[in-house]
Give the backbone structure.
Amino acid sequence: MTFETELDFLGLHSHHAGRFEPLDHLDRLESEAIHIMREVAAECARPALLFSGGKDSIVLLRLAEKAFHPARIPFPLVHVDTGHNFPEVLEFRDRRVRDLKAVLIVRTVEESIRQGRVRSASANASRNALQAVTLVDTIQEFRFDACLGGARRDEEKARAKERIFSFRDEFGGWDPKNQRPELWSLYNARVHEGENMRVFPISNWTELDVWSYIARENLEVPALYFAHERWVVRRGERLVPVTDLTPPQQGEVPEILSVRFRTVGDITCTCPVLSVASSVEEILAETAVTALTERGATRLDDQTSESSMEQRKKQGYF
């Protein structure tokens, strides 16, 4: 790798010899995220990075590559598999891990159900909230003291209450009134045995920033993010994909529409949106003018207080 190529990989783009362009908005976000990742590596004994194959974790993985280049990423990747994930996303996850020669740890909600650790209302019920128990069990199994994740502050209103280094107690619980100050980007990662940090390097990013970074870095993402024709039913204001896990309800009429997914989580609660965007540039154009938040437009299970993000986080959800 030449000096110029390495600078380009690290986000430094020269005008000509000896001079560099000033940092733009994405450069500053990238620089902050890399600083946070290096702080985790320096302060924490057993960190891990959560990687699901979704767009936010794809960006997080790219940032980790840059943070520790030319060395390999110095901590394992972890995925809590609900058992209701899109097969295309799992295939992408595994291929990306192989390309990086990274270590991937997978733990499943299905195993938590089998052990009696959690209970599902039915075989087709959403397992999104059930991930909290599996995640906390995984953290305890491997004694992780920090888990890096791709949450953004524009994702859901409870996220805006959270610090970048989010302190969790020995049960994985989050107390928004018991968080540490982060003045001048100084982070306190000290924890006692059993406690841990959830760390969000892209806290200050938006969905538009994520897609802008994907475009700039030319990152591959699962095909579900792009417009494609799919059988769906209309359920209230949302479109629900027709799958074995989400069959039409009585009175619903399936139809084929051009849609794409803004998020690719649990099939049972993840809805596509109408779209003809077949490229990252077209997704950027759509995202720039949308009036609906990502979760507000695409999640079926975030609508009641019992299943709110804040309540889940207090119970150990990421």
In short: The chain is about 35% helix and 15% strand.
